[in-house]
Amino acid sequence: MQAQYEHDRQRLFDTHLPITPNYLGSSAKRMYNLVRVDLDIKLHRGLIEHPTQPLPPGVKVNEPRKSIGSRISVIYEALRDGRGSALLIAIAEESLRGET
How does DSSP classify residue 35? Predict the structure, then answer.
């Protein structure tokens, strides 16, 4: 059962990027793509990715280990420098015009 869980969990991490937008509304899809594609913020895999947690024996990670807070900082910076705020403003304006 543990092996099946690990397999399914890994499959989720590998396939969420093309699948998830299909379940989102148009505005949420654009924000999701900003975060996951443009800002390259990966889906957090839990404690295994937290930089202060020791890795279990035999476990390797391919990406640098980051906390959720450090990933949120990337989004915050994008909002501050215009990359994210421009999209939010565009979405709000379209919504006010009834285009979404």
Answer: I
Distance CA 2, CA 53 (A): 21
Task: Read off the pTM.
Answer: 0.79
For residue 21, what are the domain limits? Answer: 2-96
Average pLDDT over all residues of the chain: 88
Assess contact for 84 and 34: CB atoms under 8 A.
yes
Place of tokens 């900082």: 73
d(CA 96, CA 100): 9
Residues 6+ apart with CB under 8 A from 79: 85, 88
Among residues 5, 35, 41, the alpha carbon closest in space to that of 21 is found at: 35
Number of domains in the chain: 1
